[in-house]
Automatic annotation (TrEMBL):
NCBIfam families: more_P_ylases. Pfam families: DUF3417, Phosphorylase. Belongs to the glycogen phosphorylase family. PANTHER family: GLYCOGEN PHOSPHORYLASE. The modification N6-(pyridoxal phosphate)lysine is found at K610. This is Starch phosphorylase.
């Protein structure tokens, strides 16, 4: 069995299992095999956390030595056996819902954050996709993921002494990444092609093993491609629209073709963000070939089993490509199919119901995803509302409240974010399998003493500070020519960070809406907190600004300059090159995690969830997940109960939020941390820590998230898919073509209202022009007002008007409201469809 393209060496037969161990990224969270990699080459392992690289760089001599070392062999055998047991063990899925997802889920995403040694991500979206995959592996959910193998990925960051961001794009040699070429049974390397204007792009396929799941990766760096094309998959989010379109075509079209080529016919296709929407077109096209059907039938047949998850908070966040670019690239792709570039543009232009091909002159990937999907979801309760608002234009004349977007709040893969100390404590309290269990079996840590919990915090904080000192020594100390005394130098390096001091962490993308400068609104006030003799604060920061985001870079610089003020030196550190490795250190060690995005811009936010398992507390804007999680007991919220309607005037909000943030720190966080009882423990703080760990850790885990996707989305979608057999889909298309012909002639005629005893009875006449009456629903709608909440009452069809046979009378009785508050509306009704997603036709009484 050859796993790798470039076999690093012939391993001693007795150690051959190291290949598959090193290629299963499970080591990135499981840590069982750490001892092996450290034994092979401690330095490489410690500095890269890349087991595959370790295996590739260890000397033959060392290998031979270990092959004779009984202790190593014992550990090796143990790990091989444990891995084997893991592969064959029962899981939640295999025990409780085996087979219900049939051929499983194809999961598409532009980025995956699985480990710092596989740098195929830029931030939250990728980390979420990585955590989703790891939790799917834990639970045994049959997911196969598809992504791109970037040769350079997102930029790597350093800062110069002035605080300017420097960007580097080191080359990721795929042979040194923990991935292997995807081969067919004959050992042939799998390749797929995607037609581009005037040439075919050849894509190489790779495989990353993520426990029980696989991540397939495509890259265009095939020597037979033209030089320019070899770089399509080099950078992530480079900012060039044409390159972006090329990447999205490679991912969506190439990805679907690859699955087909290796005979995987997923039952569900899940898009994590609209970037990968071309996969749904390609899915429909290939279905069409298999079933000899027209494109519209293919679209209708596949739709119920396509899920679109959006993470965007502003409409400007959608990818939109101009018509000429789409035409150029769609011609070669779609030639020989029934789908015209015009029709493709229409599918990405607005909600289309039939074969019309009028379009708006550009292609919006979110609209395309909506037109191809059967279900849609946002990623937190607030984000559901935001999603309804930004998708509203796709549903002309539909109120935002009725837009069919659900939500699944994101979660983090707990075993990837816990520290050795917290892992030990949770194991003691709740057993080994705790992160795979249903949520209801939460386990308060009643048997764990305050002493033990506080010792855990101290150990974690000390390790973070140790890590920071090491990292900062190599980071910016040498740069600091301005510091002349040794003390100043040490201070500038952050080496004065203190193991016992309340440590606040702030790490995220440096971009305006995240407001990384909120704490700097009143520098003097912050200085006072940092320099308080008895109750000091220290701050650890990290984050990258997108290379084109000059505002974001400015914000980094501000922090760097602030940290240079002599009185705060050694109390603030900025860690360069924020990545998964830095994140995992920070979330283990900090006492308080700060997140202060501008409401309601944070779709969900996940970084704060990562501190929960480690006993860190959150101080956050009441936004994203925190708006669901926060109570007085578990942490602190800035501007709780804010509603997202009151968005305007953000400058004033910034000022108010900053004031509130300072107040919470000064009056609540800092005193509580330093308020020790006679045992020397901060009792109130510990209470809060326990509440946060107990109430939030399991809820905001990817375990909960993946179960929710399975139970609330995938399983019902599989069932709906079954009802959409090819003939049924064909019938639906026919029927709705007819309905559309009649629709423009529909109208309401008379409306009547009679009132008695506080009730009003409304009667309306509707003319249906031959649309079968059972396909129509008439409703009476009143918006929320001082007379009551929003109501939506079904109007009963009472009788058909004699005459044409197309007139019907509808009626309902509702609590009285003033004239004009109730409005009748008429829409389609069909249990087979997800309405209004699949057909937004609606008529309001004028
Ligand atoms: C968790 C994580 C993120 C996402 O953080 P948010 O600020 O909550 O969106 C981004 N980058 C890295 C490296 C992370 O680990």
């Amino acid at each position: 069995m050859t796993l790798a393209a470039y076999t690093p060496r012939s391993l001693p037969e007795s150690l051959a299992g190291l290949f598959s161990l090193a290629l299963d990224l499970r080591w990135s969270w499981h840590h069982g095999s750490d001892v092996l990699w450290r034994a092979l080459e401690a330095e490489t392992w410690d500095s890269t956390k890349n087991a595959w690289l370790v295996l590739n760089s260890v000397s033959g001599e060392r290998m031979a030595e270990l092959a004779e070392d009984p202790e190593f062999l014992r550990q090796y055998q143990q790990q091989i056996q444990a891995h084997d047991e893991f592969i064959h063990a029962g899981t939640w899925y295999s025990n409780e819902c085996s087979g219900s997802l049939e051929n499983g889920i194809a999961y598409f995403c532009m980025e995956y954050g699985l480990s710092e040694c596989l740098p195929l991500y830029s931030g939250g979206l990728g980390v979420l996709a990585g955590d989703f995959l790891k939790a799917s592996s834990d639970l045994g959910v049959p997911v196969i993921a598809v992504g791109l193998l970037y040769q350079q990925g997102y930029f790597r960051q350093a800062l110069n002494p002035d605080g300017d961001q420097l960007e580097f794009y080191p080359y990721n040699d795929p042979t040194m990444l923990p991935v292997s070429p995807l081969r067919d049974e004959d050992g042939q390397w799998q390749r797929v092609t995607v037609p581009f204007p005037g040439r075919d792009i050849r894509l190489r396929a790779w495989k990353a093993q993520v426990g029980r799941c696989q991540l397939l990766l495509l890259d265009s760096n095939d020597p037979r491609n033209e030089p320019g094309d070899r770089g399509i998959t080099s950078e992530l989010y480079s900012g060039d629209p044409e390159k972006r379109l090329q990447q999205e075509m490679v991912l969506g079209i190439g990805g679907w073709r690859l699955l087909r080529q290796i005979n995987i016919q997923p039952t569900i296709c899940h898009l994590n963000e609209g970037h990968c929407a071309f996969a749904l077109i390609e899915r429909a096209l290939s279905w069409q070939v298999d079933h000899q059907a027209d494109f519209e039938t293919a679209r209708t047949a596949n739709r119920p089993t396509n899920l679109f998850t959006t993470h965007t908070s502003v409409a400007a966040g959608f990818d939109v490509f101009p018509e000429p670019l789409i035409k150029l690239y769609a011609e070669p792709w779609l030639s020989g199919t029934q789908l015209t570039p015009q029709r493709l543009l229409a599918l990405g232009g607005r909600n289309v119901t039939s074969s019309e091909s009028q379009h708006t002159g550009s292609l919006n990937m979110a609209w395309l995803a909506l037109n191809m999907s059967g279900r849609v979801n946002g990623v937190s309760r607030i984000h559901q509302k935001v999603t309804q608002a930004i998708f509203q234009p796709f549903f002309p004349r539909w109120p935002a409240e009725d837009i069919p977007a659900g939500y699944v709040t994101n979660g983090v893969h707990t075993p990837s974010w816990d520290s050795p100390e917290s892992d030990a404590i949770w194991t003691r309290a709740c057993g080994k399998d705790r992160w795979c269990k249903p949520l209801l079996q939460s386990c308060p840590m009643t048997d764990i003493s305050d002493q033990d919990l506080w010792a855990m915090r101290l150990a974690q904080r000390s390790r973070l500070i140790h890590y920071l000192r090491q990292r900062l020594t190599s980071q910016h100390c040498e740069h600091d020519a301005a510091a002349n005394s040794e003390k100043e130098q040490t201070a500038a390096c952050g080496l004065l960070l203190d193991n016992e001091t309340l440590t606040l962490g702030f790490a995220r993308r440096f971009t305006e809406y995240k407001r990384p400068d909120l704490l700097l609104k009143d520098e003097e006030r912050l200085v006072r907190m940092l320099t308080d003799r008895d109750r000091p604060l220290q701050i650890v920061l990290a984050g990258k600004a997108h290379p084109h985001d000059s505002r974001g870079k400015q914000l980094i610089k501000r922090w760097k300059q602030f940290s240079r003020r002599p009185e705060v030196q050694g109390k603030i550190v900025f860690v360069e090159d924020y990545d998964l490795g830095v994140a995992s250190q920070l979330v283990q060690g900090v006492d308080v995690w700060l997140n202060c995005p501008r409401h309601p811009w944070e779709a969900c936010g996940t970084s704060g969830m990562k501190v929960l398992v480690n006993g860190g507390l959150n101080l956050s804007q009441y936004d994203g997940w925190w708006a669901e999680a926060w109570t007085d007991e578990v942490g602190w919220a800035i501007r709780p109960e804010a509603s997202f309607e009151e968005l305007e005037n953000s400058d004033k909000h910034d000022e108010d939020d900053a004031r509130e943030l300072y107040g919470i720190l000064e009056q609540q966080v800092i005193p509580e941390f330093y308020e020790l009882d006679h045992d020397g423990l901060p009792k109130e703080w510990m209470k809060r820590m326990r509440a946060s760990m107990d109430q939030l850790t399991a809820t905001y885990s990817a375990n909960r998230m993946v179960r929710e996707y399975v139970e609330a989305f995938y399983q019902p979608m599989v069932a709906l898919g079954h009802q959409r057999q090819p003939e049924v889909a064909g019938g639906i298309v026919q029927e709705y073509r007819e309905i559309e012909k009649h629709w423009p002639k529909l109208r309401f005629s008379a409306v009547n209202m009679q009132e008695s005893e506080g009730l009003q009875t409304y009667t309306v006449d509707a003319y249906l022009d031959g649309i079968p009456e059972p396909r129509i629903a008439v409703e009476l709608v009143a918006e929320a007002s001082e007379y009551g909440p929003r109501t939506l009452a079904k109007m009963e069809m009472k009788f058909a008007r004699s005459g044409s046979g197309h007139g019907f009378v509808y009626e309902c009785t509702v609590p009285a409201r003033p004239d004009g508050h109730y409005t009748p509306r008429l829409r389609l009704k069909d249990e087979r469809l997800n309405l209004p997603l699949e057909n937004p036709s609606i008529l309001w009484l004028q």
